[in-house]
Amino acid sequence: MEVKESSGDRLLLILMYAGIAVFALVCLIPFVTVLSSSLTTESSIQQFGFQMFPKAFSLEAYKLLLQNDTIYKSYGVTIFVTVVGTVLAMLVTCAMAYPLSLRHLKYRNHITFYVFFTMLFHGGLVSSYILITKYLGMTDSIWVLIIPSLLNPFNMFLMRNFFKSIDESLAESAKIDGANEIYIMFRIMIPISMPAIAAISLFYALAFWNKWFEAMLYIRNENLFPLQYLIKRILDSADFSRELAQNVNIFEYTTPTLTTRLAATIVTIGPIIFLYPFLQKYFVKGLLIGAVKG
Amino acid sequence: MERTISYQSQPQKIKKMGKNSFIREIRKNHLLYLLTLPGILLIFVFAYLPIFGIVIAFQDFRPIEGVFGSPFVGFENFRFFIESKEVYRVVMNTVFLNVLFILFTTVVSVSLAVMFSEIKLKKFKVITQTLATLPHFLSWTVVAMIVAVYLPYQGGVVNQILNAFGIESVAFYNEAAYWPFLLVFIKVWHAAGFGSIVYLATISGINPEIYESASMDGATRWRKIWHITLPLLKPTIILLLLLALGGIFYGDFGMIYAIVGKNALLYPTTDVIDTYVYRALTEFSNISMSSAIGLFQSFVGFILVLTVNQITRKYSPDSALY
């Protein structure tokens, strides 16, 4: 049935379209500014400032950045941490979430509380720092970026809630056929939980990809800097581009400090921007799993 | 009867059997308990050991002697609460900034969700929604880099715009007064689009018949939003607000340290508990004192979460955390 719209209604709708469009543009424009400023010359930025439509075009910064192996090393570190971290984290998370989703497991509530309490009370930065540096000796190891983050209680509870929503009779019948619990988890529960697995893997992957604080605290070896921490280092000091440019022998060469920074930023966020539109729906799904109360 | 520990277990009866039943339970479900073991160990090492490590707050910690060798000094490390004005300022900043973050992000998220729910053009909706949620996926170090394109005195985009309107350039990186506003803006930019997803899901769960019958009665779009959508969103809004309130004592270290870093000029308005503890640890290496502040933070934060949960329980038992 068609209900006729009043002019007031139409005006409000137009305002809403405008509001959404403005917010979307505010989200988009910073990326465009960074991208176009990375594609210009250092002198153009010094003269006119950062611009959406720069007057000069130059790939100088990218050339400088990509001919040096620093960025490749950091890419390698980040990809390793993200891939290995996500796979291990999903194993640990599912291995804990599945038993805790079973009502017949007697100490389920004890273990749940044991995990849950860590969401309420934290030991704080200082004791974690002393533990990791002094007692575990994980300084300057790539594993310090992975192992402490393998179990995120929040993600674990999301996963448990999803497992809970699966009909228990499925596992029961497999059990009657003689399958053991580990087989049931890997061959039955995980395959039919793929939407949740995809979403929570993405949550973990994003967290690993964006990790930098741990690197700042525990890693001194420049070969082990992940991308996001490299960005922080580049932002904090101008030395980076000077180091990159030390092999350049051009008379009166001005080091493209600003554009190199931005080029490094673009290279860092590139994969996220390209992958995000395809992965968005999984993130949304994952966010809504939380709504399934267990 | 007592011998059959069935799947639908009866807790009271089993408890009577004591140790014997513990061993039996483990033996019966050993594979399931084995599965939880890696997680249990990880949490023990990386969450519980640091909690035990809190004893440092009551020690004169000496790195060489470690946690087991350093002498105990009682509440000596907590003296700074009385002596230091800085700690007071840092605590106030943490709470103030978090209240602003929560308030503005919620308002913008809810508004975005309402607007998205009214929009019918499919393509427009998909594209704008993708753009609006994108910032959430960037690390704070990348955001800091973008901020460094917008705020510099020379060549910064914001100052170019100000100049175009005949306003003189502002030295943002020297003026602490602007930063609560700037940080709120950055926070909303980063979080509001993603935050709107949950509200949007709640709205799309509303029975369309309610809207239809309101239309029959001649309700305008605005009245439908005001009298149907927002009231039905209220439980979700309150739940998420309460959850956020529980974390009000934890400053957003990642955000603030990435953007402000070691710019001491901005500390008066941007220094929060977490950045202060980090500096106390790494710069003035007063380990015991920073641990004492950390303990204070954890303790107050813990009390807050418990209180908030009690309130939630009373208000809507379904949405309580535990």
What's the quick description here?
The complex is a heterodimer of chains A (294) and B (322). Chain A is mostly helical and 294 residues long.
Give the name of the CATH superfamily of the largest domain in chain B. Answer: MetI-like
The total number of structural domains of chain B is: 2
| Count of discrete domains of chain A | 2
User: Helical element count of chain B?
Assistant: 16
What is the general shape of chain A?
A: globular
CATH class of the largest domain in chain B: Mainly Alpha
Distance between the amino and carboxyl termini of chain B: 32 Å
CATH architecture of the largest domain in chain A: Orthogonal Bundle
Q: What is the rounded distance between the termini of chain A?
A: 40 Å
Q: Identify low-pLDDT runs of chain B.
A: 1-10
List the helices and strands of chain B in order. HHHHHHHHHHHHHHHH
Number of strands of chain A: 0
Instruction: Report the C-alpha radius of gyration of chain B, rounded.
Output: 26 Å
Total strand count of chain B, please?
0
Fold and architecture overview:
The complex is a heterodimer of chains A (294) and B (322). By secondary structure, chain A is mainly alpha-helical. In chain A, 70% of the residues lie in helices and 0% in strands. Chain A folds into two domains: 7-68 and 237-289, no CATH class; 70-218, Orthogonal Bundle (MetI-like fold). In chain A, helix 3 crosses helix 14 (257-289) and helix 7 (153-164) runs antiparallel to helix 10 (194-209). Chain B is an all-alpha fold. Chain B folds into two domains: 1-39, no CATH class; 78-319, MetI-like fold (Orthogonal Bundle). Chain B has 16 helices and no strands. In chain B, helix 10 (179-204) crosses helix 12 and helix 12 (221-246) crosses helix 16. Residues 1-10 of chain B have low confidence and may be disordered. At the A-B interface, helix 1, helix 2, helix 4, helix 5 and helix 6 of A face helix 3, helix 6, helix 7, helix 8 and helix 9 of B.
